[in-house]
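Reopening this ticket.

The earlier resolution said the output was attached, but the attachment link was broken on my side. Pasting everything inline this time so it's all in one place.
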Amino acid sequence: MLDKQHTLFVCTTCASVWQNGKRVGISGGEQLLQQLQELSQGWELRKKFSIQAVECMSACNRSCVIAFAAEGKSTYLFGDLPVDGCASAVLECASQYYTKSDGLLPWSERPEPLKKGILAKIPPLNKWSKLNISCC
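Inline output:
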């Protein structure tokens, strides 16, 4: 699993200010993305874990939102992350996710900002591919 590409998705619409139906200024999600990109310059996993902006992750009432994903691993979606002060915790949790062959992140092992605000843990696609279930 460690040779597979891992991705950290960051919602760039989170914590936006809107006026007359248009976004004004830089959003909280864009600020978090910038912090993660800057901090990751010295991160040992920067070449194995891409950081990708996503225009919207549809969790607007739970901003800021990030997700960890990799082939063969559970995907995690976290919300309620503060714009300031959580980037290092996100990269620490990403490192934990990277080292786990199944991607499972026990609550007790996660950095404090990622203990709360979990929105989803989605099982890997390959877990269900062996089942022969037909519907409808």
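Reporter confirms the inline version is readable. The beta strands are 6-11, 17-19, 22-24, 49-54, 66-70, 75-78, 118-122. The helical segments are 28-39, 87-99, 125-129.
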